[in-house]
Amino acid sequence: MTTSVLLQDLTRAFGVTRALDGLSIEMAPGELVALLGPSGCGKTTALRIVAGFETADTGSVLVDGKDISSVPASRRDMGMVFQSYSLFPNMPALDNVAFGLRMRKVGARQRRQRAGDLLDMVGLAPQARQYPHQLSGGQQQRVALARALAIEPRVLLLDEPLSALDAKVRLQLREQIRTLQQRLGTTTLFVTHDQEEALSMADRVGVMRQGRLEQIAAPDELYTDPATAFVAEFVGVMNRIPGELQPGGQVTALGNAVPVRGHRPDETAVDVLVRPEGLQMEVAENGNGIVTTRTFLGSVTRVAVQLSGDVAVQVDRPSVESAALAPGASVSVSLLAQQPVHVAPRQVS
Amino acid sequence: MAAVTRKGSRGGLGGTASPQAPGGLGGSSPRTSTFWRWVVLLVAVVYFLLPLGAALRFAGISAFGSVISEPGFTSSLALSVRLAVITTLVTIALMLPTTVYVHLRLPRFRRLLEGITILPIVIPPVVLIVGVLAIAPGFLKGTSWLLALAYVVLAMPFTYRSLDAGLRALDLKTIVEASNSLGAGWLSTLWRVLLPNLGTALLSATVLCVALVLGEFTMASLDLYQTFPVWIYVNSQTSGQVSVAASLLALFVTWIFLLGITVVGTRQSRKRGGGEVTLFTVARQETRGD
Question: Which of B181, B188, B271 sits opposite A80 (nearest CB)?
Fold first, then answer.
């Protein structure tokens, strides 16, 4: 039983701020779509409209082709996991998970059975009789996940469910959510401001900015082929290097000329956006930069280089080759030839 | 009896202020601060217990036996208890949905509501009851319901404050939305999710309502009802000893009643990770909430 979801041209204004400005997303059955963006970009509003806690000014939400805009939240059959701990403090874990089934008039024995199964699925069967205050933050969110899944929701809505947890628990729970979601085949909308979370969990990631969708694509596509400068800079680490636009559709920076991809600003003074792995670097007497720090990341080492003209960049090199790149070493940094780059209006720092 | 009411509402403020007071009085030395702490305690004990001791001595132990057989004792006590029950139920039934609604949907009106709920404390009961008697509809006049409804007005500030503190301690919006998303409508959410989680707040409200109604004199006497405090007053005209004994008895009974409520409440609250429930929980929650 998998469900398709369609968000159609949603707009929503709070006073003068436009939280959503014509948002459209189509979710395939069983897909996990992450909405990623800075705070205030409208991603949470979009999720709350799907859940039924907010109403859109215009536009509609279609679930399996049916407009659900007028259906109250309690009849939408959507499982939701919230950012803050949302378990009912007066009920032990098992009763929390069984609550949705109770509201659906499922018999006592059956709902206990099912709630027990779900707690088992999230690895919390031994904690069934414990109250929320006796559980850790990570455990509480796992119970909340089990509770949301217990009602066999048509759509699972995750509102930054991991952001209150510490790093290690977050990583575990991330995998657990993804595994469960794929096993049950539940169509899922996941809102987060953490790009690593979005990129590692989602089938597709929608990057939002000021109420609009900048790009929605598979994580690798988003990283390697960003549609806009905003996406390019928001996802992953990005260097900004001053360059000049040339009339022939090229941009020059660090001494070489490369093609420009995507939008071209009107002014000729621009910043070239390059990822740490998109830069060439070799040790050179009288080079254009000096190594300041070196960070070992496993197979690669990220080297921070101070370029002339007060520009700092980060360059990734295979760790085996980085021995010579000690702080203070003089290096020559350049763009990879013929690799198209994004450019953005120059930022005065 | 009136003393109980005062203690319930005012003692709470003293309870929160006292931890700072000795430090302020005693200066830097811990020994002087301990000394002053004992002095303050001693003064308070003398102030509160001396009148009680005097009353006990005046009445004599034998008076307690005759109180119960005194004419009017049972009926006036029954009336007071009945009024206490009605007042508590009506007040909570009115204030719980109101407070929840204001918290969820009209947070900007919280200050206004706070202002409105303080009015019954500011306006003297005499003014209230005279006004109520002047404009009350005929079918209510001459029934104890009118008095109960007037008490609802008196009890409203305490109930609101208890519930407000209780709701502030919850992540109300998230919990209500979670409940909604799981398929619970408004009634189910109120009954199955909010009510059980407001146990401590409701208990505080109940304690305050009951203490208030059991000790209220002005309104009852002006409405010509012989509630327990009125009966004690009337009796004091004929037999001083019996009426003092009745006052003391009422005081002890109320104390035991309130103690019972708080013990049960603490046990319930502990199970869910909450703190101890005392008569002053309300005041304490209020200061913490801000």
Answer: B181
- Give me the interface pTM, i.e. the ipTM: 0.83
Asked if B228 and B74 touch (Cβ cutoff 8 Å), the reply is no
pLDDT > 50? residue A75: yes
Residue A237, both tokens? 């680490």
The DSSP bridge partners found for residue A11 are A21, A58
Q: Alpha-carbon distance A84 to B286, whole Å? A: 23
- In order, the DSSP letters of B151-193 are HHHHHHHHHHHHHHHHHHHTTHHHHHHHHHHTT--HHHIIIII
Render each residue's pLDDT in chain B as its tens digit; 290 residues: 333 333 333 333 333 334 444 444 445 577 788 889 999 999 999 998 898 888 888 887 777 777 777 788 888 888 888 898 999 999 999 999 888 999 888 888 888 888 888 888 888 888 888 888 888 887 877 788 888 888 898 888 888 888 888 888 888 999 999 999 999 988 899 899 998 888 878 888 888 888 888 888 888 888 888 888 888 888 877 777 888 888 888 888 778 877 887 787 777 767 666 656 555 554 444 343 33
Tokens 């005693």: give the residue. B26
Structure tokens at A226: 């960003």
Label residues A102-115 b or e (16+ Cβ within 10 Å = b): bbeebeeeebbebb
Best mutation site among B167, B180, B181 for testing chain A: the one with the most A CBs within 10 Å?
Answer: B181
Q: Identify the CA nearest to A128 among candidates A136, A141, A116.
A: A116
How far is residue A235's CA from residue A175's CA, in Å, rounded to a whole number? 20
Q: Which residue has the tokens 């709902």?
A: A111
Cα separation, B16 vs B7, whole angstroms: 14
Kindly report the backbone phi and psi dihedral angles of residue B52, in degrees, each rounded to the nearest multiple of 5, phi listed first. -65, -45
* Residue A279 pLDDT exceeds 50: yes
Distance CA A257, CA A274 (A): 13
Task: Give the pLDDT of residue B21.
Answer: 42
Q: Looking at the complex, report in whole angstroms how far the Cα of residue B277 sits from the nearest Cα belonging to chain A.
A: 16
What lies within 8 Å, CB to CB, of A85 at 6+ separation is: A132, A137, A140, A141, A144, A164, B171, B174
Round the CA-based radius of gyration of chain B to a whole number and report it: 21
By DSSP bridging, strand A289-296 and strand A330-335 are: antiparallel
Q: Which residues, other chains included, contact A190 with Cβ-Cβ below 8 Å and sequence gap of 6+?
A: A32, A33, A34, A35, A158, A198, A201, A202
Give me the helices (H) in chain B, please: 2-17, 21-26, 30-59, 61-69, 73-105, 110-122, 125-135, 144-169, 172-181, 186-188, 195-197, 199-215, 218-222, 228-238, 240-271, 281-289
Most B CBs within 10 A among A75, A91, A99, A158, hence the mutation to make, goes to A99
CA distance B73 to B246: 9
Using a CB-CB cut-off of 8 Å, the residues of chain B touching A147 are 178, 182
A287-318 pLDDT, tens digit each: 899 999 999 988 899 999 999 888 999 999 99
